[in-house]
Amino acid sequence: MPTYKIENTAKNNQIVNILSLAIPVAVALLNAIQTKIDLGTWTKVLPHVNGVLNATCSIILILGLIAIKNKNIELHRKLMGVAFVLGSLFLVSYVTYHISNEPTKFGGSGWLRPTYYILLFSHILLSIGVVRLVLKAIFYAMTDQIGAHKKLVKWTFPIWLYVSISGVLVYILIAPYYV
């Protein structure tokens, strides 16, 4: 199985930097659109798809950690590639849902209400930052900057895993309120 390498050039690094900023800004702008685009009722299933994508990504991330701890670099690369694809699919699905559906209001009360909003706020805040971390970690791996990759993933991995798991928890808490 071939490994995919890219050159460590200023241009490639600049592309990573631009995407790191452009993706969260684009998601925020698309999410802020007040007028919804009618894409059909099929979009109502997307929050459930997103829950599955986040849950699967969480499992793949943990398996990727186990693979690298066991020094199985090839399996680690494949699993991290799958996690990246799942995260990308999540972003597309998330934006598609939010440009075509009104926001769902959380209806829980008591201790669930602050728990939900703490999870949601931390999930959103960290998801913004993790985009750059993941893109840089992948860039370092694909340009054979393994030392920089290892140094960065000490921060990236736990944040990415938290974002994935908290996404599942947010979904579980708000799922009863989807129309």
Task: Write a concise keyword list for the protein shown above.
single chain; 179 residues; mainly alpha
Structural description of this entry:
It contains five helices and no strands. The radius of gyration is 17 Å and the shape is globular. The longest helix is centred in the C-terminal third of the chain and has 31 residues, at 112-142. It is mainly alpha-helical. The model has no long low-confidence stretch (mean pLDDT 91). The protein has helices at residues 10-32, 46-69, 73-100, 112-142, 146-174. α1 (10-32) packs parallel to α3 and α4 runs antiparallel to α5. It has one domain.
The proportion of residues forming helix, as a percent range, comes to: over 70%
Radius of gyration: 17 Å
Query: How many structural domains are formed by the residues?
Result: 1
Q: Helical element count? A: 5
Mean pLDDT: 91
Unreliable stretches covering 5 or more consecutive residues: none
- The quaternary structure here is single chain
- Relative strand content: under 5%
Shape: globular
Distance between the termini: 45 Å
In N-to-C order, the SSE pattern is HHHHH
Assign the structural class, choosing from mainly alpha, mainly beta, alpha/beta, alpha+beta, or little secondary structure: mainly alpha
Biggest beta sheet attributes: none
Number of strands: 0
What does the secondary structure layout of this molecule look like, with pairings?
Elements: H1 10-32, H2 46-69, H3 73-100, H4 112-142, H5 146-174
Helix pairs in contact: 1-3, 1-4, 2-3, 2-5, 4-5
Q: Nutshell version of this structure?
A:
This is DUF420 domain-containing protein. The chain is mainly α and 179 residues long. 75% of the residues lie in helices and 0% in strands.
